[in-house]
Specification:
This protein is an alpha/beta fold and 404 residues long. 20% of the residues lie in helices and 31% in strands. The chain binds flavin-adenine dinucleotide.
Length: 404
Amino acid sequence: MKTADVVVIGGSAAGPVAAISCRRRYPEKGVVLIRMEEQVLVPCGIPYIFGTIGAPEKNLIPDALLDKNGVEFIKGEVVEIDREKKTASLASGDKIGYDRLILATGSLPVVLPIPGLDKENVFTAKKDVAYLRNMLDVINGAKDIVVIGGGFIGVEFADECKKNRDCNVTIVEILPHCLQLALDEEFCAEAESMLTESGIKVLVNQKVEAVLGGNKVSGVRLASGEELKADVVIVGVGARPNTELANKAGFEIGPTKAIVVDRYMRTTTDADVFACGDCAQRYSFFSGKVSRLMLASIATTEARIAGGNLFERRCYHPGVVGVFSTVISGRAFGCVGLTEAMARQEGYDVVVGESTAPDRHPGGMPGAASTKVKLILSRDNGLLLGGGVPGGAGTGEVLPRASC
Ligand SMILES: Cc1cc2nc3c(=O)[nH]c(=O)nc-3n(C[C@H](O)[C@H](O)[C@H](O)COP(=O)(O)OP(=O)(O)OC[C@H]3O[C@@H](n4cnc5c(N)ncnc54)[C@H](O)[C@@H]3O)c2cc1C
């Protein structure tokens, strides 16, 4: 049986960073990374495959990083963890022994209990090259695309599908606004206007009740009774922690269905096993409450903490801060931390400061964009709780970065 000082399960955002962080902190330790995919996609680039990037093959994470850092890579599915014997068993029948184990098994798209979602040409945001290649081919021939969910992922899919294609795109969002879980209402309204101007139909306060058609999808029916034609449906309603393996091995699973870890990313179940990324439980920086945020920026921060803490306690996780940015029809929308609405909900007495200015000087320069910065502060102590920045291409650079 093969053995390694450290085995990492997962090869997307969190796994490789955890493996490389371990090698950097403890260069004498041998690290093996196991993942299911032959090639790994840049997850945040997935919607852009359907417009700006043009192909899944152009949106891959190079494996050279693993080689360069002395991380051994095995392609395979881990089907069982034996915590007593400290082994991970692969579907191939091979077993690998470990001293420390990191679970970075990520997340899977949420599947809604809507009848008809199993029909042909209904897609989710799967992190799988062959699946996305087929999805791209189908979308290239589509006339009517319905996107269920108007969060960041749904909005990005809709915007990209509309690019350079002669097709109808409709977003159906159950909340009063698209992007409402990330942005303050005035920015959501601006983003919706940009979507509408680019020809995307935005239906808010609407629920999809059924996906219609024979084998192939032909439309969706809303709770209002209205039917929308669709030859493609994209479901972008969030992700859930992928914890089947951990569950089977008896790890404690928390209220968000993620693996429970402490502030050092060590599982509460087994001192030799750590978890990081979308599969791990996380806590809000502001409230300390369990958080449902799932972001690559958070996954990689946690991975650095997990990798660094494997053999001695080095780094404490202060809690997660969400950082989002996206571009809709050429206008960027960024936000960090709490929105004004969230801050009030958390019970903060807030002071809001806003300013708008061109992002180039002088403002008459070609390409200059009006950029607004809204900052949300706690009145008691001046603590900066969050900010929103709709503006030009430089918006992402304005956002403060969350770091460990
Ligand atoms: C369409 C889309 C757009 C996004 N855009 C952004 C964005 O703009 N910004 C941002 O910060 N975040 C974004 N996210 C979220 C981000 O992708 C995730 O937070 C991130 O991928 C989490 O990384 P992870 O490594 O924890 O998990 P995953 O990316 O889910 O990776 C899990 C890994 O575990 C492996 N694995 C699972 N089970 C097993 C097993 N049994 N055996 C072996 N290997 C296994 C898989 O093969 C995979 O390599 C987006 C997500 C999606 C879907």
